[in-house]
Design a protein that fits this description.
It contains 4 helices and no strands. It has one domain. By secondary structure, it is an all-alpha fold.
């Protein structure tokens, strides 16, 4: 099924692109909220961003990168002029994004004091959250770059 932006992208990839822009807005609004001291709002926004991104990974990213690997969509499975380079960037993006989601889930679990061994506890929440925000936004930029390589160039 063709996408909504007139590129070679399938609909799932275009829907994910729109959702990721929305999630980026949530991340920035969450950051703005915590800077204003609105901890409860910040927590709700960031948990919503993590949940939406996990849903995007499961229902949009995985299917658009693995299940649609057919000649029908250039850039998939070795098709297209930049397919080798695209695959390398996609693997880096998947590994980085997966690690970021694990860190986000760890921080959420830590904030709610779920029992965990002493070696997994942290007191550096603010530093880790700032690092997560920067890396998450950088990973999103990488995702937009992958989209451009895969479907536009």
């Amino acid at each position: 099924m063709p996408g909504i932006f007139g590129s070679r992208a399938p609909l799932l990839a275009d829907l994910n692109l729109v959702l990721q822009v929305f999630i980026a807005g949530l991340l920035l609004f969450g950051y703005y909220s915590i800077r204003r001291g609105l901890v409860s709002r910040h927590r709700k926004i960031m948990i919503s961003a993590v949940a939406l991104n996990l849903l995007a990974i499961i229902f949009l990213m995985i299917p658009s990168n693995f299940l649609l690997a057919t000649p029908q969509y250039p850039g998939y499975g070795g098709y297209g002029p930049l397919s080798g380079l695209t695959d390398i960037f996609i693997y880096f993006h998947m590994i980085g994004g997966g690690l970021l989601m694990l860190l986000a889930l760890y921080l959420i679990a830590s904030m709610y004091n779920y029992p965990k061994p002493n070696r997994l506890r942290t007191r550096h929440f603010e530093t880790l959250m700032r690092l997560l925000l920067v890396l998450w936004l950088a990973t999103m930029v990488g995702g937009f770059f992958n989209y451009t390589l895969k479907y536009i160039l």
